[in-house]
């Protein structure tokens, strides 16, 4: 009799422990799913200014640095503007590398470069390989969801923005994959580095437009508010060394865009996302190597100061 009571007690304890373990596991997995659901979902902020500043302030104690992903625009070997001998994709890399040098000075930043002289970052290369199918699915699901919200009138389709040349499908999938990777790896700020151009009759001659601009997510996207705040801080610094674009619509300086995948098109980016067009590829100060180095150095420096200012909550700190 005593023995069976003992076994009963053991059984009860085992049931209790199992309930606790499985219960916790379920709560944990629910928590994980819940986080996922919150990620870049319409009408919910996926990132906030306060949260970013808190992360920056607490980085020395938490060891959790602010992750900044620099993406030199276009593929290592193709795409982007070309003007006489100059290739935008190479210039984007030159400028990105200087930007990385400036940002790395701040120990609170963890700087990741999407590509360098050797091509795509190997972390990304293997991610692309393993997740190509998921990236397509991610694109399709997000497209469907956005289309549905537009149909029921909850999201407004913006179709009168600045027109961009459409990325070929493979390039587009890679950009979605970069957004996925950045989301999964808690990247806080993504900066896409580009130089501008526009279609005109004589593509080998300089165009009429000049100046820089910053593209940010459409205001209806989850990462819009914080992206605008970061962009404003960076904008005010770059504007000290170069002029704002004079292309109609782009002359707003900071432009919300619904379609650019780089800044989270179809609401695909959780973190702050910006795409900086640092100038037009045919501008005189980019044609000569030495003058270009000075120009890029100053643009990279101002961008990094602008980012720092955002994180410390200042607007004009040097
Ligand atoms: Zn470009």
From TrEMBL:
Question: One Pfam match, by short name?
Answer: Amidase_3
Q: Which organism is it from?
A: Candidatus Taylorbacteria bacterium RIFCSPHIGHO2_02_FULL_43_32b
Q: Name one GO molecular function term.
A: N-acetylmuramoyl-L-alanine amidase activity
Keyword Hydrolase listed: yes
Q: What is this protein called?
A: MurNAc-LAA domain-containing protein
- InterPro entries from the entry? MurNAc-LAA_cat, N-acetylmuramoyl_amidase_3
Q: Does the keyword Hydrolase apply?
A: yes
Show where the MurNAc-LAA domain sits: 68-286
Transmembrane segments in this chain: where? none
Give the residues annotated as coiled coil: none
Q: Which SUPFAM superfamilies match?
A: Zn-dependent exopeptidases
Print the keywords alphabetically: Hydrolase
GO cellular-component terms in the record?
outer membrane-bounded periplasmic space
